[in-house]
Amino acid sequence: MSSLTMVRRVTVVTHNRLEEMLVKEFARLGSKGYTAMDCRGQGEHELLQDAFSTATRVRLETIVQPDVADAIMAFLGQEQFAHQPIMACVETVEVPASMKC
Amino acid sequence: MSSLTMVRRVTVVTHNRLEEMLVKEFARLGSKGYTAMDCRGQGEHELLQDAFSTATRVRLETIVQPDVADAIMAFLGQEQFAHQPIMACVETVEVPASMKC
Amino acid sequence: MSSLTMVRRVTVVTHNRLEEMLVKEFARLGSKGYTAMDCRGQGEHELLQDAFSTATRVRLETIVQPDVADAIMAFLGQEQFAHQPIMACVETVEVPASMKC
Fold this sequence. Notes:
The structure is a homotrimer. By secondary structure, chain A is of the alpha+beta class. Strand 2 of chain B pairs antiparallel with strand 2 of chain C, so a sheet runs across the interface.
């Protein structure tokens, strides 16, 4: 039977102009893959800054080892991102032991 | 280094005709933003009611304080939604302390 | 007021050629519904095998009872999937007691 391993899933929702930078940063910090989906929505920054913008939103996910998740969240928690239209969260998920991430 | 704060992520999958009502209700209950993605799929209600429908599904997410999540889940748990094509769940996620939600 | 029930959410990201097979298998193992979203991204298998491929990725979700989640994860943890472009994870989520899954 399969056994499950605890890892971490980081989700980021942001403007698509930040996608390439973030994906490169995830890889540099140890992520081995990511998933991206176009989406729409509204957050506090959009209400204030982008009422007339047509910027596309993107939702990024990466499933990584806990230490990589810590590094990504520390990167995203930097002061420079506090005023950007970016939302990030992380939670623990379980993956089959046979899957590498 | 960054510190993380525990908040709640509510996910709702429903027909797009309910999107506007739900997003307004989330805001009224204290949500400061949401993400929406078009999706497809099948649930019990679709099998029964919508075999020939072309209704579009939508997946909504909102990351909120625990008390706001409780209010949203209480709203979605009402009897009136038990017979609607709507699936909702909530889980704890961690966000950078610098991000407001 | 509503009460919440603990269930499990399985997420799978894979090539769309595997979608139909997986959705049928989920149903056979007891899942009562699923959500599918087209997405893009990159993983280790893509880097090695699909650099010039235009295959579409899909992200599948199904919210199920814990024993159904165990069966799905055991299915996905089989040796045959270790070399496929497939990522799967599972976590506990809470749903309104009035929603069946």
